[in-house]
Every structure is written in structure tokens, then in C-alpha cells.
Design a protein that fits this description.
The protein is mainly alpha-helical. It has two domains: 128 residues, no CATH class; 37 residues, no CATH class. The protein has eight helices and no strands. The longest helix is centred in the last third of the chain and has 17 residues. It is globular and about 65 Å long. The N and C termini lie far apart (45 Å).
């Protein structure tokens, strides 16, 4: 409750993609009270799901940070990345980064010195002049990016359904069949509060 509930409320209030890195940092911070054996379990789960600690997401979060020096640092990294001659010559593999669980700020969660920063798809429509103005004028100019939620209730429902499938059947094919049949049933009977709502499934 000390981990899930505060983070759930924080995500519900700040559900933009630009807040994703902060949510990862908050999860790490709120789980520090756990015993060491539980920490080891939780740390593994956080590491496997640390996609919002990807350099591109952290840079986006930094660009929208209230601190001017953090915004400037992100802008400099993006400008340097856009000027790199290596961009666009290979396929980028999106992998969860190695996390620093002792970080005191979301900007310190990854080792920047060991990472090659590449151009970010979410920022590709933003002019380089915007980032240069952040560095030059020390201000945060008006600019927008494509807004995606970092977490939705649809995701929660899918997690719940996958958990139920795991408890009911064994094996990937069986779980997949369980989930698909559940979705199909829900599409025919979106509500089932009374007997009148019952609709028999069509025969094959």
C-alpha cells in the first residue's frame, strides 16, 4: 500500500508521457522501506519495466522541467545528438536501461556517459531552433509534442485480465485463447448485471 497507492494517485494526476521518468523514480523511492529480500524482488520488476527511464523519455521530461539548468542540459544533449553523423545509419533497439537505484533525482537514474543519445521520434517534429533558444535565452519557449498517456485504465484492465488468465490456464496458447475469448464475450455482452443482459454466444 505504501508503494502502489501513492504511485497510482501520482500517475492518475500526472499521466502525460513527459512525467513517465518521474514515476519510475518515485517507484524506486517509495519502495526503499522494504526489507532487502523484498527489495530484490521489486528491483527486478522495476528493471524489467523501466521503459520510461529510457534516455529519450528522460530528455523529454527534462525539457519540461521547472528548473532552467535541467532544461538547458536536455537541450544541449538533443542538439549534440541531432548533429551526430551516426544517426539514421542503424536500427535503434529499444531496451530498458540499467538503473541507478541510489539516484536522488530522475535525471540521475541512468549512466549518461555509457549511453549513445540518438534522435528521439517524439521530438522529430520540433525544430532545432527551439532547443537552441533554450540554451541561448535560458527560457522555456512555447512548444508542444504529441501527447501520449504514460498509463491508462485500459492498461490496468489488461494487466488484470492477463493475471486472471495465468491463474486459470497454463501455457502461452491457452492464456492467449482465454484472453481472446474473454474479449469476444465482452464485445457481445458489455454489461451483465441482470439475467436480461444474457446473450448466448453464436455457435461455430
Amino acid at each position: 500500500m505504501k508503494v502502489y497507492t501513492p504511485n497510482w494517485l501520482y500517475i492518475k494526476s500526472k499521466h502525460s508521457l513527459k512525467d513517465g521518468a518521474k514515476h519510475v523514480r518515485n517507484t524506486i523511492s517509495t519502495s526503499k522501506y522494504l526489507s532487502q529480500d523484498l527489495k530484490n524482488v521489486v528491483a527486478g520488476v522495476i528493471c524489467r519495466n523501466s521503459f520510461f527511464a529510457h534516455p529519450g523519455i528522460i530528455l523529454l521530461c527534462m525539457l519540461k522541467d521547472e528548473r532552467p539548468h535541467i532544461r538547458e542540459l536536455a537541450a544541449r544533449c538533443i542538439i549534440k545528438s541531432s548533429e551526430s553523423s551516426s544517426n539514421g545509419k542503424s536500427v535503434h533497439v529499444f531496451l530498458p536501461p540499467k538503473l541507478n537505484f541510489e539516484a536522488t533525482n530522475y535525471t540521475e537514474m541512468i549512466d549518461w556517459s555509457s549511453i549513445t543519445i540518438t534522435s528521439q521520434p517524439i521530438l522529430r517534429d520540433i525544430s532545432t531552433d527551439v532547443f537552441k533558444s533554450i540554451v541561448r535565452d535560458k527560457k522555456n519557449p512555447e512548444w508542444n509534442f504529441v501527447h501520449f498517456p504514460c498509463h491508462t485504465q485500459v492498461v490496468e484492465r489488461c494487466v488484470k485480465l492477463v493475471t486472471e488468465a495465468t491463474a486459470e490456464v497454463y501455457g502461452f496458447q491457452n492464456r492467449d485463447g482465454f484472453i481472446r475469448s474473454t474479449f469476444f464475450s465482452q464485445s457481445i455482452m458489455p454489461e451483465f448485471d441482470h439475467k436480461a443482459d444474457f446473450k448466448p454466444l453464436p455457435a461455430d
